[in-house]
Amino acid sequence: MSVMLMSILVGLVVLILSYVVIRLFTFIRWYKKIKKVLSHFPGPKPHWLFGNALQIGCFHDFVCRNHEEYVEKQNAKAYTFWLFINRPILQLTHPDTIKVLMKSNAPKAKSGAGYLFVLPWLGDSLLVSDGPKWERNRRLLTPGFHFSVLNGYFKVYNDVADTLLEKFASSCKDGKYIEIFKLASLATLDTLLQCSLSYKGNVQLVGENHPYVKAVKRLVTLVLARALNIFLYNPILFRLSSTGREFYKLCDFVHQFSEDIIAKRRKELLFTIC
Questions:
Q1: Which residues of 154-172 are buried (b: 16+ CB within 10 A; e: fewer)?
Q2: Based on C-alpha coordinates, what's the Rg of the chain?
Q3: Where are the domains of the chain?
Q4: Alpha carbons 31 and 37: distance in angstroms, whole number
Q5: Minimal CA–CA distance to 76: which of 90, 56, 59?
Q6: Count of alpha carbons within 13 angstroms of residue 220, beta-carbon side
Q7: Which of 53, 131, 203, 248 has the largest count of CB atoms under 10 Å?
Q8: What is the DSSP letter of 241?
């Protein structure tokens, strides 16, 4: 092996090691800073590498346990846990802590894994976009929520509310407690579809058996499954996995569902104008 080739190899090794050391040093500084900030909040003790990922099991049960321990027993207004060593989560559980975040003028980060995971599904929409594009879309959308516009949809609001109240009444007629989140979510979706696109798909009556609702619910489950599996963070590995294939298939379905409704509404508007 020539001296020149040996020098090149040594140089490459030094560059790679330097890069690794710099990244490691940067991560350690970030980790210490975040850990110091989050130490002011209660939460389950994390593993040094896996965080609380090994304790989660069923994510719903994990959140319920934390809520009972830190919110109900300790009256905490926020608590923290770690998905992995590089995925700290600060869970806000009280209006006082949420108000601080919502009223802050500081830029809201939209580049984390949580946003990247839903990007193929939601696209660069108002929820996910940032900067000038977000400001432009917000300006375009705001007039649609003016009182003069919303007043024309009172019949839709009332019809949706009547259906929702009927669902409440039928669900608790035996004096049982009911979970209103699912029913309220269906009512919200029903209102949005009717007001924005004049789509009447009996979403509340069909319930979670509606193909679109079922697909969205499954997409949320798949996003959460990806968040809990560090090997699926890589986009290529995720796309090759069974979870990724199902995710992208459902994305195609919900996109096609939306495009069909928009195309139908567009034709109706053109026919009305002509």
A1: eebeeebeebbeebeeeee
A2: 24
A3: 20-106
A4: 10
A5: 90
A6: 7
A7: 203
A8: S
Q: What distance in Å separates the CA atoms of residue 209 and residue 194, rounded to the nearest whole number? A: 19
Residue with tokens 């379905």: 253
Tokens of 184: 């309220």
109 — pLDDT class (breaks 50, 70, 90): low
Look-up of token digits 């939460």? 43
Amino acid of residue 104: S
pTM here? 0.78
Measured in Å, how far apart are the chain's first and last C-alpha atoms?
Answer: 80
Instruction: Give the whole-angstrom CA distance, residue 102 versus residue 19.
Output: 38
List of E strands, 19-145:
78-82, 88-92
Rounded distance between C-alpha atoms, residue 117 and residue 113, angstroms: 6
Contacts for 237 with CB less than 8 Å, ≥ 6 apart: 231, 244
Tally the C-alpha atoms within 13 A of residue 183's C-alpha that lie toward its C-beta. Answer: 16
As beta bridge partners, residue 79 has: 91
167 vs 15: CA distance, rounded Å = 65
Report DSSP state, residue 109. Answer: P
Tell me the range of 9-18, 127-136, 250-259 where mean pLDDT is highest: 250-259
Instruction: Report the alpha-carbon distance of residue 19 to residue 103 in Å, rounded.
Output: 39
